[in-house]
Amino acid sequence: MEPAPPPCVVLDQPQLAENIGAAARVMANFGLSELRLVRPRDGWPQERAWASASGADWPLDGARVFDSVEEALADRRLVYACTARPRETELPVHTPGEAARALSAAAAQGLPTAYLFGAERAGLETRAVALCNAILTIPVDPRFRSLNLSHAICVAAYEWRLTVLDAPPEAFRDRAPPAEQEAMLGLYGHLEEELEASGFFHPPEKKPAMVRNLRVALNRARLTDQEVRTFRGVITALVKGRGRTLERLARRGGPRA
Amino acid sequence: MEPAPPPCVVLDQPQLAENIGAAARVMANFGLSELRLVRPRDGWPQERAWASASGADWPLDGARVFDSVEEALADRRLVYACTARPRETELPVHTPGEAARALSAAAAQGLPTAYLFGAERAGLETRAVALCNAILTIPVDPRFRSLNLSHAICVAAYEWRLTVLDAPPEAFRDRAPPAEQEAMLGLYGHLEEELEASGFFHPPEKKPAMVRNLRVALNRARLTDQEVRTFRGVITALVKGRGRTLERLARRGGPRA
Fold first, then answer.
1. Among the partner residues A154, A244, A245, nearest to B154 by beta-carbon distance
2. B25/A146 touch (CB, cutoff 8 Å), yes or no
3. How many CA atoms, within 13 angstroms, populate the side-chain half-sphere of residue A215?
4. Which among B90, B151, B222 is the nearest to A220, CB-wise?
5. Closest to A26 (Cβ–Cβ): which among B93, B151, B165?
6. I want to staple B30 with a disulfide (CB 3.0 to 4.6 A). Which of A19, A92, A218, B161 is the partner?
7. Among B80-89, B127-136, B180-189, whose mean pLDDT is lowest?
8. Global pTM?
9. pLDDT of residue B240
């Protein structure tokens, strides 16, 4: 199956070219590419937008400019208005995750969808919100509600991206596997033998608990085969390295007190 | 019950004051307030940070500056490194949501936690990642991975906020909490000093990678304070115990060949 076409991002009367560039950048991070601008304050195109997109040029290169929100949304079938003032209309109010899942379900049926964002300071006018099907509200801390425009887009786009991913990317799954238990037992045996020789297990009746505690701590680390070898090298080095120092001293006439 | 203390945000060598301000703003949006700066490139404080925080002054007013990541993390017990290059170490790799839930569970037990972010361009050095307990990777589109620093913080902080809103169940784990980073640094220092003395780090140019691998493996174990003490006892025993054996042998006329 073709992947669902991502929602487009519609910015109503954006003020700063830097914010349009930052929007394009975070859209690209999360797999959105279609940008629509309704009456950008300083005109379009603007070089500063490309400068702040850090290479995410394609949403800017392909951006379309509209005279009204109505025109920008004309071909869309499911539109979420992103606003911090959800009570002004009687539209359903969804979290970013709910909105992303609804948009994803619509997109999977081939429906064109959109997120609509307002200007940096003023946000969306109620008139523009009323053109939408539902409201997306970002759950900010009520003590500080003022979201940067590109941060609002970031949250919406991130949630969209989660709907695209069913599982973490492949890259995360190929950690080296944990060592076989046999290798771990070899490591424990080595460590415990050396600790026994050094008088660590004192008093003797506590040895079983001490052994168990050491094994539990090392087990939690889920060591790889390579790490098991490294730790065995550590034990050998600690025991023999210092031993060699003392051997040299002994040959010269005994260790220091 | 007291609400869990939110994680602090540690920025390693941030470059632009505007980004520090944007970080403070989005932290405040999602209920984070404690900001730590490790060697900010242009010094601290900087007016432009306050200008771009749009009124979210308190994370900036309270920001603490550190000379090293080690110092910035010294009192933390669960730290997530935010990096796009999860394969460089053998730490577990979590999504932003998984990380937030783990941090929330730790915070619910009253444990101090942190998110660690790298510089705008370079990201986190592997050495800094190796100080952390796990990795948070944001699931960006592989076609455009370059995240703005404040957008990365936005995603992490937004997911933290969701855990607060979801009123996560209290952690029922009755394990002792993980040790403070400072205690872990003490353990590493002890181990590395003894390994240095024993000639373990050979060839010398490999020492940084060897140190890192050991730290990562031990970090994954999330040792408790008691376990840290136990492992320090192990090191001492391995080094001195065998030494004592050799001392005894030396007094009797030299060690065996």
1. A154
2. yes
3. 16
4. B222
5. B151
6. B161
7. B80-89
8. 0.79
9. 81
**Contact in structure between A54 and A150 (CB atoms under 8 Å):** no
Is A41 an interface residue toward B (CB < 8 Å)?
no
Are B216 and B134 within 8 A, CB to CB? no
Rounded to the nearest angstrom, the minimum Cα separation between A51 and chain B is: 13
Smallest CA–CA distance, residue A50 to chain B, in Å, is 14
The residue type at A187: L
Q: Is B137 within 8 Å of chain A by CB?
A: yes
CA A18 to CA A29: how far, in whole Å? 17
CB contact under 8 Å between A151 and B29, yes or no, is yes
Q: Which of A168, A194, A155, A1 is nearest to B136 (CA)?
A: A168
The CA distance from B56 to B66, in Å, is 22
Q: Does A183 touch chain B (CB under 8 A)?
A: no
Chain A residues in contact with B243 by the CB 8 A cut-off are 242-243, 246, 255
Contact (CB, 8 A) for B224 and B179: yes
Mapped onto helix, strand or coil, the DSSP state of residue A188 is helix
Secondary element (H or E) of residue A80: strand A78-82
- In A, minimum Cα distance to B133 occurs at A221
Intervals of CATH 1.10.8 along chain A = 181-251
The CATH class of the B181-251 domain is mainly alpha
The answer to whether the beta carbons of residues B177 and B77 sit under 8 Å apart is yes
Tokens linked to A256: 């220091």
Residue A45: cis peptide before it, omega within 30 degrees of 0: yes
Phi, psi of B181 (to 5 degrees): -55, -35
Q: Specify the residue for token string 């991070």.
A: A29
Per-residue pLDDT tens digits for B35-69: 999 999 999 999 999 999 999 999 999 999 999 99
Structure tokens at A4: 């669902």
Range(s) within chain B of domains with CATH label 3.40.1280.10: 8-172
Homologous superfamily (CATH) of A8-172 is: SPOUT methyltransferase, trefoil knot domain (3.40.1280.10)
What would the mean pLDDT of B177-204 be, rounded to a whole number?
89
Check if B149 contacts A (Cβ < 8 Å). no
Q: Is B77 on the interface with A (CB under 8 A)?
A: no
